[in-house]
Amino acid sequence: MSLLARFEGMAEFLFTGAFKKGGARLQPVELAKELVKAMFRHKQISISQVYVPNIYRVYLHSSDWGPLASFGEVFLIELSKYLYSEATREGYTFLSKPAIELHSDDTVQPREMIVEVDFDDSIEVDWEDEEENENEFQKESNWRENTTIFRESVTTNSREADSPGRISDYFLEIIEGPDKGQSFKLGDHDVFIGRHGQCDIVLHDPEVSRRHLKITPGQNGWWLDDLGSTNGSFVNGQRITHQTVAPGDRIQMGLSLLVIQKVPLP
After folding, report:
1. Which ranges of the chain does DSSP label H, i.e. alpha helix?
2. Which end of the chain has fewer surrounding CB within 10 Å, N or C?
3. Residue 92: which pLDDT band, with cuts at 50, 70 and 90?
4. What radius of gyration do the chain's Cα atoms show?
C-alpha cells in the first residue's frame, strides 16, 4: 500500500484558533505558533516514521490577511522553514518541504484563523535547507583554505594575453546599499558573496543571505549562481538562479546593487 493510500480519507483537517487577548491584528509569531500546533496535532504514525502534513492553507479575515500577505513570498518561506525545523527537532517527516498558503475569507472572524492541512507528495517547495547550504559552503571553504594551487609564470607576447577583455581587467563595484562605494577586483577564481564572514565579499545588508551568490569566471564573462538565498538574486531586474553576466549588467541582492566595471586605464 502506498504512503498516500494510508492517508486516504484524511486529506483535510480544520483547526480554528482565536486570539482575543492580543492586539488589534494577528501577529506573524501567533500564526507560526498555531501552524506548529496544527502540524503536531495531525501527525500520523507509520511503521517506521511519524509523518506530519506538508500542506497548510490558512484562511484569515481580510484585516489580518492584508498585513501578513504584504510580506510576500519571503514570509511564507520563513514559515515553511520554521515548520521544517520544528518537525526535524522532533524527528518527524514531511512528504516534501511544507507549503503554506494564505487566503482572505471574511467569513472568518478578525484575529481568528482556519487552517486546512493536507498530505501531498506531488508538491515542490523552492527553498534550500540552510544547514545543507552551510555544510556545502564549509566544505568548499576548507578546500580553498587547505589547498595550494601552483600556477606557472609564463611570459608571452600573444594578443590574447594582452587583450583588454581579460577577466583580470574588471572589478565588482557596489553602487547601492549599505556597502556602497566598495569595489573588489575579479580574478580567475570563484567569488562568494554574502553576510557570512568567510565569504570573499562580505555585505552588511540585512536582506542578503549568509551565503547568497557565487560568481564564477568564464571564457566570455561570468556565471552567477544563487546559493538558495531567501530574497533571491536579480540581474537587470529579472530573478535568476544560474545566469551569465557581462560588464554593465546590474546585479541586485537585497538592498545592494552591484555592477561589473572595467578597470580604468592608468
Report:
1. 3-6, 28-41, 62-69, 73-90, 130-146
2. C
3. very high
4. 24
Question: In terms of Cα–Cα distance, which of 200, 183, 205, 179 is closest to 261?
Answer: 183
User: Could you tell me the three cell numbers for 13?
Assistant: 483537517
Classify 57 in phi/psi space as left (phi over 0), alpha (psi -120 to 50) or beta. beta
**Local confidence band at 128 (pLDDT 50, 70, 90 cut-offs):** low
Is the full-model pTM beyond 0.70? no
Domains and CATH numbers, the chain: 25-118 (3.30.2320.60), 170-262 (2.60.200.20)
Q: Are 104 and 57 in contact (CB under 8 A)?
A: no
Interhelix angle 73-90/28-41, rounded to 10 degrees, is 40
C-alpha cell at 103: 487566503
